[in-house]
Amino acid sequence: MSAHLRTLARRLSPDVIPVFPLGGAILLPGCELPLNIFEPRYLNMIEDSLKADRLIGMVQNAVDPSRHAPHEEDAKPLAPIGGLGRIKQFSESDDGRYLIVLTGLKRFEILGDAPGTTPYRRARVSYDKFAHDIDAHISPTLPKAMSEDSQERSKMTAAMKSFARAIGVEVDWDALGAVPMNSLVDQASMISPFDAFDKQSLLEAPDHAARRRLLVGLMTMYSKTSGGRGEDKSPPPADLQ
Fold this sequence. Notes:
By secondary structure, the chain is α+β, with helices and mostly antiparallel strands. The chain is built from 8 helices and 6 strands; from the N terminus they run H-E-E-H-E-E-E-E-H-H-H-H-H-H. It has helices at 3-11, 40-51, 144-147, 150-167, 173-176, 181-191, 196-204, 208-224; strands at residues 16-21, 32-37, 55-59, 81-92, 98-113, 122-126.
């Protein structure tokens, strides 16, 4: 984490942002999300963003029929909460695709669709509910042994090991042992192959402690079942089809 990201998260609060709806993909503050962009309207979005402040809102399509963001009648409903990201890296492939890396700044609430003529969707957003997200960019000042609860770390590690065995993934546990728990929880929440409903729940968790408890519960549940809530447990695609 860096003071630079914290400054950006505090300073950059546009009322209207381009949004990239992508099922199974969430973006949390301080985390990075690689994306492979190939659909024409989103190539246009990337080009426009690079000319401006490099900001993009990552959001899932609505995953809960009882709640979704306000939207126009002819627009597909979106989940009410998303993550604001800034393009950190980008490159263009020979076949015209953009390969980008987004760095998460903070979460937002969608207030409604924004009018405009762009081929991609834009939304009116508010960051009021997530003012504390900028704290995710503050590096720990205490040694890990003093700043973390060893019992909670052990529960988290045990759940991760069980989950990794269940889905057949090899993990460098020594390397993960050096990652601060909050960062570990956020990264695991983003990359774990949970279904869209569970991903959204992790995104909307009010704080790291709540997200950690939910993540441990989900890993335990998915470890004991072959499919969890969803049928397809493959990683989410990097772009819309």
